Amino acid sequence: MTSTMHRSAFGRLRAEFRGALLRPGEEGYDEARRLWNGAFDRRPALVARCAGADDVQSAVRFARENDLPIAVRGGGHSVQGYSMADGGLTVDLSAMKAVAVDPGARTARAAAGLTWADFDLATQRHGLATTGGSVSSTGIGGVTLGGGFGHLMRKYGLTVDSLRGARMVTAEGELVRADDELLWGLRGGGGNFGVVTEFEFDLHPVGPIVLGGPIFWPLDQAATVLEFLRDWAPDAPDELGVGIVATHNPPIPDLAGTPLLGLIPVWCGDLDRGAQLLTPLRRLRKPLADLVRPQPYRAVQSMLDLAASPGLSSYWRSHRLPALPGPAIDVIGDLIASLPTPQSLLNGWVIGGAASRVAPEATAVGPRTPGFELRVIANWAGGPGHHDWVRRGWERLRPYADGQYATFLSDEDPATAYGRSLERLTAVKDRWDPGNVFRLNPNIQPSSRSSR
């Protein structure tokens, strides 16, 4: 931004912008460009910390006029660092925190800068919730637009199944309310079509006390536990969500350094019935730790926060597994034993219930057959990366997979997530972003590219 034209354009932007505009060398810039994934150290030309949708419009128009790549930051948890672009403009939504809950209608209107901690705080005051991310510092935008997994999905579906409306700033800087076809694309198609500034969700009765917590078994019992899970989970009531976590670094000091398989059951129905239902799981073999207890839903939502601490370098790949045959279980055991750092882990979900009863064409998420989702995650602090360990593990599990979910796309081909939805998503892209302005994401390319 050194030319007279650029300086003039920036002056106009500053005059109309209500939020903060941060450039290299200015106070607050380095903090604003810091990402959750410490593997990326990017230096945008401008961070536009927006105060509202009008600021988003101004920032997008400025970037287009000055040929600046556009990145969009909500919670900043993109594993590929898409929230910042070297030499580009970051549309930073993190200051947009408004939320309005209508407990009678069981709906919420939520600005795109909210984290799940913010959102759950507002909705749980009324005993309501929407399926949302299981790390409380994650932004609602990235989780929702990718599909949205969480502890409630077997009862209430994926996050997108509760998405009833959205407002979006287009590539031309116009603010629109999503029509039916755009809303379909936003239900799983990511940030490919514009900058969503506001989400409207259906809410559901939850808690505020639920029954949940991790149960950990030693590695030599992992195969037995996974075989039990494979046979038990498909017939479990919808009120039961089950997360999967394997680690050498559980939140239990006495077990630090021990290879463990953990399951995280969360029951969102009658507590006595839930306790009865979970008895066979809790008595399976000899758990090293059982932390299942009645607790606030908001506490459950932050249980995995330590495993996703900001500043570590991170890389993952994921699979959708329709089943857990014996050879796949053996691979999972090998991966647990060989986690490359104390912070690395396997993380996943049992898929089924309401999340699998939605017609495939109803959203852009793609297939949702009952089964399992599993990510192979390397986290490390400094030094060389562990990408090869992730890729080797991902390749070993590949014969047992039938795709993946867009929520957890990393550097894989997005086509593996969308399947037959890709052609329709491309048509939505052609309508709203034919120049591929919004390409810093798991990108759906327009059919006829004319990107700037």
TrEMBL record:
Instruction: Report what the protein is called.
Output: FAD-binding oxidoreductase
The protein's matches in Pfam families, at most eight in alphabetical order, are given as:
BBE, FAD_binding_4
- Family from the record: Belongs to the oxygen-dependent FAD-linked oxidoreductase family.
Its keywords, alphabetically, are:
FAD, Flavoprotein, Oxidoreductase
Q: Where is the signal peptide?
A: none
- The domain of life for this entry's organism is Bacteria
Q: Which Gene3D superfamilies match?
A: 3.30.465.10, 3.40.462.20, Uridine Diphospho-n-acetylenolpyruvylglucosamine Reductase, domain 2
**Domain FAD-binding PCMH-type residues, every copy:** 40-206
The cofactors named for this UniProt entry are: FAD
